Each structure stands twice: as structure tokens, then as C-alpha cells.
């Protein structure tokens, strides 16, 4: 019994250390379990309900990096980046989107993709698909996990 009682302070200390290490970090903004599944690289499948195919093969892509709280990607021609201004289990909002300014053969797709990203407010995951929605719940785009 004395051995058991002498181990109690050590067990309590181990529990306290473990609970401190799993505490949310500043800036985590209520990140839940679902968030870590979006921390990945995605390629565009549909935009405004239309299937996307690009002759050059340079499909728009998106990388969501929750560690650095930023979005990186490509509109198929230009490189994009933006801070993640808010994220939770079903909500994601990107800050101002920055872009390179190269002359692109399909500027229409690039413009529509970038505009849609600026309207994103929520998301849902279904298998290897990430759906991004606007504030009214309208699906803006569907992306496929590629990494």
C-alpha cells in the first residue's frame, strides 16, 4: 500500500504534464479534430457545380496549412497565398488573397477560382473530397485530396 501511495504523486505529475502538452496553442482558433483533416493539398474538381478539366493539366490547387495558419495554392497559372483568418470544425475564412500576375491562357478560370476562394466561409469533408461553401451554404467548389 505504501508503494502505491508513493507512486500517486508521480502519476499525478505525469497526468499534469500530459494535459499541459495537449492544451491548444495560442492562435489555434478553436481548431477541432476535423480541422486536421483539411491540413493537406487539394486539387480542384468542380467550380460552381461545373467539372473542371484543363488542357495544360495545370489544375488549380490549394494547400491548407493549419500550422502556419495560411492557404497556398495556384489558380492554374498564378501562385496564390492568404492567411487563414478563422477556422473551426466547419468554418474557414481566408484573409486577403495575394497572387502573382502572369499572363494566363485561361484567365476566366483563374479569376473565378480566386473570387470563389475569397467567398469561402464553411467547409465539409466527404472521403477524399473537400467542399467549400459561401456564407449562404452554396457549394463554391469541390477539391480532391492529392497528397
UniProtKB/TrEMBL annotation:
Pfam family, one: META
Keywords, in A-Z order: Signal, Stress response
Domain of life: Bacteria
Keyword Nuclease belongs to the record: no
Signal peptide region: 1-22
Transmembrane segments: none
Record-linked PANTHER family: DUF306 DOMAIN-CONTAINING PROTEIN, HEAT SHOCK PROTEIN HSLJ
Protein name from the UniProt record: Heat shock protein HslJ
Species of provenance: Neolewinella antarctica
Amino acid at each position: 500500500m505504501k508503494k502505491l501511495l508513493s507512486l500517486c504523486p508521480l502519476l499525478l505529475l505525469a497526468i499534469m504534464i500530459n494535459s499541459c502538452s495537449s492544451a491548444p496553442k495560442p492562435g489555434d482558433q478553436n481548431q477541432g479534430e476535423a480541422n486536421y483533416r483539411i491540413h493537406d493539398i487539394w486539387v480542384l474538381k468542380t467550380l460552381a457545380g461545373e467539372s473542371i478539366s484543363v488542357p495544360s493539366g495545370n489544375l488549380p490547387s490549394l494547400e491548407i496549412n493549419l500550422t502556419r495558419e495560411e492557404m497556398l495554392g495556384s489558380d492554374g497559372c498564378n501562385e496564390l497565398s492568404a492567411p487563414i483568418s478563422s477556422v473551426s470544425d466547419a468554418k474557414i475564412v481566408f484573409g486577403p488573397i495575394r497572387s502573382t500576375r502572369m499572363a494566363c491562357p485561361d484567365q476566366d478560370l483563374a479569376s473565378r477560382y480566386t473570387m470563389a476562394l475569397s467567398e469561402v466561409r464553411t467547409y465539409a469533408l466527404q472521403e477524399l473530397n473537400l467542399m467549400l461553401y459561401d456564407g449562404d451554404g452554396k457549394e463554391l467548389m469541390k477539391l480532391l485530396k492529392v497528397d
